[in-house]
Design brief:
The complex is a heterodimer of chains A (112) and B (115). Chain A has 112 residues and is mainly beta. Helices cover 0% and strands 56% of the residues of chain A. Chain B has no helices and twelve strands. The radius of gyration of chain B is 14 Å and the shape is globular. The chains are: A mainly beta (112), B mainly beta (115).
Chain lengths: 112, 115
């Protein structure tokens, strides 16, 4: 089975802190994704990566950056956390040309 | 524009009753279609998917969904709901071809199950 893991289930940070969310997948998938999930808004795509060191903006990239130095690892970075970035963050991965995405358990981030 | 609509935000059903969750999509070509389930505090788990062929697809946990091209719908059904089915359900649509296989998600339907 595909396994997608995220470094933290719960995280509490202060406004202005730099925050790193890590995601690792173990199935050699080409594509990796970061979403944020908010009540009533569903899943919104922040960034995705289709290869090592390659990235593309999703629908809501403002305030975020990403890094993919190794195929299995995709990091989401909040350069200066703000309270409106309090949310559930979900990482996913998929094979090239196949849309089925496999999700990690999520990180619930609270920014105070 | 590509979009997915789940018109029901909340649904409550009694245990043992049948269930249908609605999903409508707008997409330029025949899409890939998915239903995911999210239990409280968890990530999303794939219930079923439609790529091509038989328009009635079977999934895990006794769920099925039917692709109706004429109605641009992909509704999820279960003949008899169990208390453990209480969760949030997301419909998603994706495109064919291309290396960046993004999915578009609906806003979700929260299912409550009454004893």
């Amino acid at each position: 089975d595909v396994k997608v893991t995220q470094s933290s289930r719960y995280l509490v940070k202060r406004t202005g802190e730099k925050v790193f969310l890590e995601c690792v997948q173990d199935m050699d998938h080409e594509n990796m994704f970061w979403y944020r999930q908010d009540p009533g808004l569903g899943l919104r795509l922040i960034y995705f990566s289709y290869d090592v060191k390659m990235k593309e903006k999703g629908d809501i990239p403002e305030g975020y950056s990403v890094s993919r130095e190794k195929k299995e690892r995709f990091s989401l970075i909040l350069e200066s956390a703000s309270t409106n970035q309090t949310s559930m963050y979900l990482c996913a991965s998929s094979l090239v040309l196949v849309n089925e995405q496999f999700f990690g358990p999520g990180t619930r981030l609270t920014v105070l | 524009a590509q979009s997915v609509t789940q018109p029901d935000i909340h649904i409550t059903v009694s245990e043992g009753a049948s269930l249908e969750l609605r999903c409508n999509y707008s997409y330029g070509a025949t899409p890939y279609l998915f239903w995911y389930v999210q239990s409280p505090g968890q990530g999303l788990q794939l219930l079923l998917k439609y790529f091509s062929g038989d328009t009635l697809v079977q999934g895990i946990k006794g769920f099925e969904a039917e692709f109706k091209r004429s109605q641009s719908s992909f509704n999820l059904r279960k003949p008899s709901v169990h208390w453990s089915d209480a969760a949030e359900y997301f419909c998603a649509v994706g495109g064919r071809g291309g290396a960046t296989n993004k999915l578009i998600f609906g806003t979700g339907t929260l299912l409550a199950v009454q004893p």
